[in-house]
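Is this the right way to post structure tokens for a design question? Let me know if I should format differently. Anyway, here goes:
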């Protein structure tokens, strides 16, 4: 699995970060939109597909990524592609299309104007 966008010195071909931040006081945050479920699903799917490990894909938890109004969100590097997802089907599509085959899932892209 090679990517024209991954630097030659990169330890992973792709790295996906899931915002799992929780804000108190009723303020919107990814944790309120089942972000942990998305992270768990992605990690399991990447492992089951044999995509995990050096030179492949890494799935990581992140604190606030400052895009709460679009939550839950995940970002894939090195392409810097931001996704908003709602269910296991969305996660499966990100894994299969982007993490495995390098194809961005256009329908799940986070609108660029949505921030905190």
């Amino acid at each position: 699995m090679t990517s024209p966008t991954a630097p030659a010195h990169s330890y992973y071909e792709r790295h996906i970060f899931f915002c799992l931040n929780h804000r108190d006081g009723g303020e919107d945050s990814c944790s309120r939109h089942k972000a942990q479920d998305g992270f768990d699903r992605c990690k399991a799917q990447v492992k089951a597909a044999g995509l995990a490990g050096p030179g492949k894909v890494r799935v990581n938890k992140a604190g606030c990524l400052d895009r709460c109004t679009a939550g839950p969100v995940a970002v894939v590097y090195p392409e810097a592609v931001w996704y908003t997802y709602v269910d296991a089907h969305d996660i499966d599509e990100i894994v299969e299309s982007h993490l495995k085959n390098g194809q961005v899932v256009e329908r799940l892209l986070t609108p660029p104007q949505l921030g905190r």
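Format looks fine. Someone answered above. Worth noting: Residues 14-108 form a domain with the Glutaredoxin fold (CATH 3.40.30.10). Residues 35-48 form the longest helix (14 residues).
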